[in-house]
Amino acid sequence: MLWDLLQQRQIGQARQAANQAEDAASRIGSDMAELERVVESLTLTCQAMWELLREQTHITDEMLLARMQEVDLRDGRRDGKVSNAASVCPGCSRPNKARREVCLYCGAALPPPQHLFGQ
Questions:
Q1: Are the CB atoms for 75 and 114 separated by under 8 Å?
Q2: DSSP letters of the chain?
Q3: Distances (CA, A) of 41 to 30, 34, 36, 45, 47
Q4: Nearest CA to 101 among 110, 91, 92?
Q5: First to last CA, the chain
Q6: Is the pLDDT of residue 91 over 90?
Q7: Environment class of residue 54 by beta-carbon count within 10 Å: exposed (0-12), middle (13-18) or buried (19+)?
Q8: Global pTM value
Q9: How confident is the model at residue 84 (pLDDT cuts 50, 70, 90)?
């Protein structure tokens, strides 16, 4: 009888864990669907903007690709990502985290970080 109670308790715990895992998987699936929707929207927006820019200027696909590589390399890594590189202090030339407003070493005001579309 004691053994049966222990087994029933373990079965109940296993069911609860399975239900929690199922709920988590469902949430992750919803999050993935939303991310896919956002990526598709951003892709469409970028394509439309590039076509407008190309039509209205003399910018070529090669020029765009070269600039993309330049922006990618700003943090010292060619990884297909835009990241906030460390800010260099104008007072002491030491690197600081991009989100700092004043230098950790000398207290000088740091330039604002360069963010996407805020350069």
A1: no
A2: -HHHHHHHHHHHHHHHHHHHHHHHHHHHHHHHHHHHHHHHHHHHHHHHHHHHHHHHS---HHHHHHHHHHHHGGGS--SS----PPEEPTTT--EE-TT-SB-TTT-PBPPPP--TT--
A3: 17, 11, 9, 6, 10
A4: 110
A5: 72
A6: yes
A7: middle
A8: 0.56
A9: low
